[in-house]
Every structure is written in structure tokens, then in C-alpha cells.
Specification:
By secondary structure, the protein is of the alpha+beta class. The protein has 3 helices and 5 strands, in the order E-E-H-E-E-H-E-H. Helix content is 27%, strand content 33%. Strand 4, helix 2 and strand 5 form a beta-alpha-beta unit. InterPro entries: ADF-H, ADF-H/Gelsolin-like_dom_sf, ADF/Cofilin.
Length: 122
């Protein structure tokens, strides 16, 4: 992910006319809470997040996460557009090790994501 060098996360959305995937936010902020704050309550997004965690006896690990954010309050049409566009974006990204799907904040909470990321460690 050459364009992601120096970024902790990148958030993607659809253009206003829903014809292309666009970057809506890039950040080098290390706070997971800041990342969650950039996921709107009622709009779908995709994100790539460089997730860093510690495993007992193994030290720090990094996982590149692909997050699909489709909150319950998003419009049905937007959810359908995001679902149908996801694979094209996902295929264009290299190095993703874990996919996270979220429909509410509990599903993308740090502990939940840590559990998924650390289970799939290699």
C-alpha cells in the first residue's frame, strides 16, 4: 500500500454521485478512538487500519485491517451500493490480513477487533 505510507488509517467512501470510490480521510493519529470517530453514525464507509497489538511472549504485531462500516442507520440504497462495490476495492488492496464488518460501534470496538486480529495471527 504505497499510498498509505505514513498513514495509520485511510477511510473511503463513495463520490457524491455514487460513481466512484474516493478517499474521505487519511490520518497518522495513533488513537483507535480517533479512527472510530471518523466512522459516521449514519453513513457507510470502508477503511484500512494499521492495527498494532501485543501478543504475550511474541511482542508487538501489526495487522492491516479492512473495515466495512455499514451502520444500521444508513440508508438502504447506500448499504446496497457499498455492498456491491466492496469487492472491487478489496481486490485493489494488497496486504490485508483481517476483515472486520461493523453495523454498530460495538462490532468495531477495540476489544472486538483485537480478538479478531489476534486470532488470525501468523
Amino acid at each position: 500500500m504505497a499510498s498509505g505510507v505514513g498513514h495509520k488509517y485511510i477511510v473511503f467512501g463513495l463520490s457524491p454521485d455514487n460513481t466512484e470510490i474516493v478517499v474521505t480521510k487519511t490520518s497518522s493519529d495513533n488513537s483507535y478512538e480517533t479512527f472510530l470517530a471518523d466512522l459516521p453514525e449514519a453513513e457507510c464507509r470502508w477503511a484500512i487500519y494499521d492495527f498494532e497489538f501485543e501478543r504475550p511472549g511474541e511482542g508487538k504485531r501489526n495487522k492491516l485491517l479492512f473495515v466495512t462500516w455499514a451502520p444500521d442507520d444508513a440508508k438502504i440504497k447506500q448499504k446496497m451500493l457499498f455492498a456491491s462495490s466492496k469487492d472491487a476495492l478489496r481486490r485493489s488492496l494488497v496486504g490485508i490480513s483481517t476483515e472486520i464488518q461493523g453495523t454498530d460501534y460495538s462490532e468495531v470496538a477495540y476489544e472486538s477487533v483485537l480478538d479478531k486480529a489476534s486470532r488470525g495471527s501468523h
